[in-house]
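#struct-pred

JT: dropping the chains for the assembly here, can someone run the whole complex?
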Amino acid sequence: MNYSIAIYGGPYSNQAAHSALHFAQAALTRGHCISRVFFYHDGIYNGSALVSPPQDEANVPAQWHTLAKENDIELVVCIAAAVRRGLLDEKEAKRYSRASHNIAEGVSLSGLGQLIDAGLTSHKLITFGL
Amino acid sequence: MILHTVNKSPSTQSTLKECLFTATNGDNILLIEDGVYGSTTAFKALLKEGLHYFVLQEDLDARGIAIDQLAPEWTAISYTGFVELTETADTVCSWF
Amino acid sequence: MSENMSDLLIMFRKAPIGTSWAREALDLALVGAAFGQHVSLLFMGDGVYQLLTNQQPESVGQKGTQAMMKALPMYDIEQIFVSQQCLADRGLTQDQLGFSCDLLDQTQVQALLQSHQQVFNF
Amino acid sequence: MLPLENASIPTDDEGYLENLNDWQPEIAALIAKNEGLTLSPEHWEIITLLRQFYQEFELSPAMRPLIKYIGLQLGKEKARSIYLMQLFGESPAKMASKIAGLPKPTNCL
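RK: done, full complex below.
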């Protein structure tokens, strides 16, 4: 089956992104496909390129980026939630005249419509709340 | 059939209570994260009949809750079991 | 309630003001409608507080959702439900609400969830 | 920057007002001019309506709700996207909102 996942919790403050990662790995193992992960609310912080935990702690955002690359999963961050919270790509940094941008490679900013679309085009949409 | 996931402890928030209020015969309930505290015997009185109750083993283990502390209604499952529950659900509703 | 499955149910369960959930859930409702989806809203739990009149979110430097809620008919969102039980639990009555909603009992709330293909729960 | 009498009204790189309170009809004309538009009474009718929409709902409307609102306020004839496109170009909701001094859109659709 074709799955999409929504994540509303940021890294290190709660379990959402971590639970979602375990779920995704289990779903892939069972032969399902995951087409899109949509980050909303504080979940957008998982899209930062600057997450820098100590070496003895799991880097969940980095694990997501790796899993997505290996399994062709689209990682999408809600643009309105992200820009408000200070997660920008090059284009938005220019649009808001900000000196730098910080979105991780392989993650894209897009509209909330992508979450609606994920619900419509996947067999299952599984949400991991804050 | 709806699969409801709940991730909050029933002592701090009414998430589980609200979930059970809306769940109907044949629905599956799955506790994850801090929600797993709700599977212990202390909260047995919240449960109603006609629902199937599951709790995520990994989250129980992480919190040091042993199987013998659970009310008898609950079945502990792995993440694979979680995926299996989503396969058969018409809708998955996440309570947080 | 119709026998047919409806598109999208958005549940509002968090109190307004204290967190951004009310706004972010309403944003999703509007986007869903702009995408041509048939959207229903259900207010339950502390989410019923979102419907109270006389909120002054600007007194804590916020925008609130009251004005946005009034725009729902422009987005063709006309099915707005509230749990009677959740109102009663909080000592509220329908005349304290700033919006016209359909009151649902527990069985009707259960049926509402079952009758939607997609449920977003905030 | 938009030059107005002795003052300069700050705008961002895309021509949106930095402070929404700076908006006044003369400013709208200046924004429109930068976008290559000269405002006619028909433009003003829509701009006024957009400001009314924003005041009422605290929202910049997407195309569909804008058209519905126009239909309710100005009648069916003007509640057509082709009419708005003739006035404001390819993205009329966006362009008219900019001239009307509404917040910069978050591109959230």
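JT: nice. Chain A has one domain: 2-128. The longest helix of chain A spans residues 16-29.
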